Amino acid sequence: MQAGFASNKFVSHLASIAKLTPDDIELLGRMPFTISYYGAHEDLYQKGDRPSCCCLLLQGYLCWVDSELDWRQIISIHVPGDVVDFHTVISPVVRANLRALTATVVGFVPHSYFREISALSPTLRQALSLLHIIEDSRSRNWIVNLGSRSSLARVAHLVCEIMIRLRAVGEGRDYCFPCPFTQSDLAAACAISPVHANRTVQELRRRNILEWRTRTISIRDWPALVRIAGFKTDYLSLQDPEALLSDARSAETTQHTPAMTPSRMSAS
Amino acid sequence: MQAGFASNKFVSHLASIAKLTPDDIELLGRMPFTISYYGAHEDLYQKGDRPSCCCLLLQGYLCWVDSELDWRQIISIHVPGDVVDFHTVISPVVRANLRALTATVVGFVPHSYFREISALSPTLRQALSLLHIIEDSRSRNWIVNLGSRSSLARVAHLVCEIMIRLRAVGEGRDYCFPCPFTQSDLAAACAISPVHANRTVQELRRRNILEWRTRTISIRDWPALVRIAGFKTDYLSLQDPEALLSDARSAETTQHTPAMTPSRMSAS
DNA sequence: CGCCGTGTTGAAGTGCATCAAGCCATGTGG
DNA sequence: CCACATGGCTTGATGCACTTCAACACGGCG
Fold first, then answer.
1. Which of B46, B180, B206, B245 is the most exposed place for a label (fewest CB within 10 A)?
2. Among candidates A26, A30, A64, A17, which has minimal Cα distance to A44?
3. pLDDT tens, B128-144?
4. Which of A17, A50, A75, A91 to probe by mutation at the B interface, max B CB count within 10 Å?
């Protein structure tokens, strides 16, 4: 069981949605976790599991997937810095499979830790609640996406969302990021067939909007992508709707982790 | 500002997901609220509003609707007994329009009330958190519904969900309930065109599975409906996945509101 | 009365699924 | 080093579930 040093992205994410005190940062620095590694398409949890830890994603991508019958639907995807199953602190049973999209590194953090910091710090309790609400907001937004957009717009929207979420934890500065998906995964996320996913990606390539290789996505024309997707950032953050977008416009400004001096390597 | 007597369905819903103490029931009985009435298709909130109250639905149906551009997608629907915007206690800004599907009666409950009872009772705090999680679970389930089912299954699933949720607050015992939707609303919920919604309803009628009139839905063949929908109740409750379904099977058992002696009419 | 919202029906068009085949890169064992 | 398998990507042909457009019927209401 280690503590602290690898949770920076999580802390910076929290700091971006709530005013944290130095004491809060200190508490977060003591976060205990056990590191695990998973290969692409491996399941971390199965529907019905009752984990006693939360899963903090450190590297790679995870998704929640509902494999009803033989048909699968990806419900949400997660980027480094996300605690993907925060709800299990309150209700431990999981309702879907948690699957690695790529090779991943995760840290398992005991539920008790989150209960403790919630009890100790009102601001942290608030911040964790906000995380919950943002999560919910993303789900609802994805309903709108599946329900009201064409396949091209869905794919574009998904790329936009991942881009912005990576930005929020300090990655993807040059509009490039490691591709989370095989084209079949993309299809499962956007509720289209794998064949059509391929044709949709080709269309985006043809319009010179992005490059999509097996390992990397590079966005060549961000404004066009946003336009096709009908993408708005407001559902991803809560304080200042314009902050993330304006940051994405000018890729220079670099104040993502305000006052980050993590007290690293303290024992748990 | 009144208090107490009309919140029975909310209390029984809470009692079904957590063990409430007599003190908790007492606290809930003191819930202050202001009653309002809305007509069908009237908006209670618009995107961006910052209410200082939560909205407790007493009669009728409400929905959250995203009216991006001119296209509208219904994100979730609510039945009597639901607090539809519990998240505004934590983050006041609403991200979609709250719209009446039918004529409705709602009670507005100040955020401060929920903050108080959360501070006073750990079990209530827990119960409210669970409500939040069930809400989230419904959203995710609706993603699966839109993403992976045919239009017939979507409509069937929606009817199943409403049926079971009404049961949980003691309504619809005879597989009949007031219809929440015009066929256009149904279309907006299921992400299909109004014309196709009509044909889908006709198909369900043709198979003798339900009667769907402007004012009432009667389910004639519940097992068939469940089969078409691929409906499972597990995402709607948290404690005992089978309770609601078995209750729905035998419409006799009637212990929905354990120890309900609401201390009515106390001043706020 | 005439209007408007809702439900219904038919005909034509299309976005996407499905099936099927072939391509390429990577890995593996002989 | 080749033989072969495997998983991901690509492409074409065909079909269907659903959309769109257009018209009409019905009832409630000013």
1. B206
2. A64
3. 999 999 999 999 999 99
4. A91
